[in-house]
Amino acid sequence: MYEEIKKETAAAFHELCDIAHFPKRSLLVIGGSSSEIQGGQIGKNSSDDIGKVVVETLLAEAEKEGLHLAFQCCEHLNRALVMEREVAEAKGYEEVTVVPWLHAGGAISTNPYYQIKNPVVVEKISAAGGLDIGLTMIGMHVKRVAVPVRLKNNHIGEALVVAARSRPPLIGGERAHYTREK
Q1: CA–CA distances in Å: residue 121 to residues 7, 13, 117
Q2: Which of 132, 133, 148, 153 has the smallest count of CB within 10 Å of its CB?
Q3: Is 129 left (phi over 0), alpha (psi -120 to 50) or beta?
Q4: pTM listed for this prediction
């Protein structure tokens, strides 16, 4: 079961990266429900073991892609995010004081808190895109304008996976151009 979750997690992550073409050092938001992955209802049956597999896989794959990750906590912690302190400070994100745990934060935010070298929790970010494993509502942390990404690898375990990338807002009117032309 865990090997399949690992494989599905890596496949969904790389498919998003292949479609979105995130620049190196971009920040992505990860939301996930270990309950949904095992076929349950979000927030009802958290699994530390599933969270560990998903987080280890995503951290390793993000490192290969040269990307940074922020892991979204559940609504009990107002969807705050766990990330590397160095990245948070470089982006000017303000730290909040809380330690996520299995039943207030969830398995997919608790695990990075203990796996990341120097973790910090922040209230909000502006990510280039992200993965939402189990419909955890990551949209509040994606830059304007969020663009849905349809994945072929759209399940991890039993959880539906949706993804997003962002693009700058298109401004102007009928005379505006959106690509560089001579």
Answers
A1: 28, 23, 13
A2: 148
A3: left
A4: 0.94
Q: What is the pLDDT along the chain (182 residues), one digit of tens a residue?
A: 999 999 999 999 999 999 999 999 999 999 999 999 999 999 899 999 999 999 999 999 999 999 999 999 999 999 999 999 999 999 999 999 999 999 999 999 999 999 999 999 999 999 999 999 999 999 999 999 999 999 999 999 999 999 999 999 988 888 888 888 76
Query: 175: which DSSP letter?
Result: T
Q: What is d(CA 129, CA 62) in angstroms, rounded to the nearest whole number? A: 13
**What six digits make up the tokens of 38?**
């095992």
d(CA 129, CA 146): 7
In residues, how long is the chain? 182
| Gap between the Cα atoms of 58 and 49, Å rounded | 14
